[in-house]
Amino acid sequence: MSTNNAMSTTTTPMTLVDWMKHCQARIEVALTEFLPSPDQVPTHLHEAMRYAVLDGGKRVRPLLVFAAAQLVDADDAGLLRAACAVEMIHAYSLVHDDMPCMDNDALRRGKPTVHVRYGEATALLVGDALQSQAFMILANGANAPARQLRIVQLLAQASGSAGMCGGQAIDLISVGVDLTREQLEHMHQLKTGALLRASVLMGALCGQKPDGQELSHIELAALNRYASAIGLAFQVVDDILDATADSISLGKTAGKDAANHKPTYVSILGLDASRILAEQLRLQAHGALTVFSPSAHSNSTTWRLAQLADFIVQRSA
Ligand code: GRG
After folding, report:
1. Which residues line ligand 1 (CB under 6 A)?
2. For the chain, what is the mean pLDDT?
3. Contact yes or no for 268/179 (Cβ under 8 A)
4. How many alpha carbons fall within 13 Å on the CB side of residue 67?
5. DSSP 3-state assignment of 112?
6. CB–CB of 234/192 below 8 Å?
7. Do 62 and 90 form a contact (C-beta atoms < 8 A)?
8. What number does CATH give the domain 15-314?
9. H-assigned helices in the chain
10. pLDDT band at residue 164 using 50, 70 and 90 as cut-offs
């Protein structure tokens, strides 16, 4: 069964949970293959890279790649490369974010952070090497060259100073600062939103539409609106969970935002208004998808994207 298939081999569509499990299993296998072998020298670095990436996390970004690829006829091998590349960038960002020079955290994905387990110097190198590995995976990809180049550009833009790194830089200088809601939104669109947006667009660029056409500007703009809404929703929910959930459920230290005097949606809007905002963003995401079909039903190409918007807002970890 294809990763990209919205339906099971029978006519009954897979539930979201089953589809996620199916995709997550395929992602795990592909990540295992795309990471350097732990037997390869320097073995301690390769072991630490695998520790950082494998066996943990929700894999939201790869799932978005798969879901967006349902709009096109995507080749499975190219799709897995895009999905694994974006997850490696995400894993690198978590490793660096957890280091003492940044967020200084000891728990990630329910286990000790990479610098706690392997030391700071190795953690720094793990992040660096994962970033290189992500682009190596894409460079060796089999998509049509023009689309593959666009995929590389999207990931580079989303992870660099105009995206995730830029957002992280703003985050680091915002501790204890009273940001406006607009400033907070800008920071999160870069820090978290950029990579989620890239995931959606990368998936959509993994093939052509069934009629052999490229996605139109109108369709790409709709995907951008969808991605902006879920990117922000992801962060609003992250802030809500940080304030309301416990460390065991989250697999990372809860309550850190308030403890570190970080501006968040909860600190600026309050808990109730943050929950209302998350729901509004979920509906905005659904609204953007109506360009493709008026409503998301189980045989529409946007069904999984719509379901992932729901998952992002309704998740508990
Ligand atoms: C160090 C360049 C650099 C960037 C760090 C992503 C990031 C930027 C920092 C992570 C800190 C953080 C808690 C951000 C909030 C949203 C977020 C990215 C949460 C973690 O993503 P999930 O929930 O994690 O998708 P899993 O473990 O499920 O993959």
Report:
1. 57-58, 60, 90, 93-94, 96-97, 102, 109, 164-165, 168, 191-192, 235, 238
2. 92
3. yes
4. 30
5. strand
6. yes
7. no
8. 1.10.600.10
9. 16-34, 43-53, 60-68, 76-97, 114-118, 120-139, 145-159, 164-172, 181-188, 194-204, 217-244, 247-250, 256-259, 265-269, 271-289, 303-314
10. very high
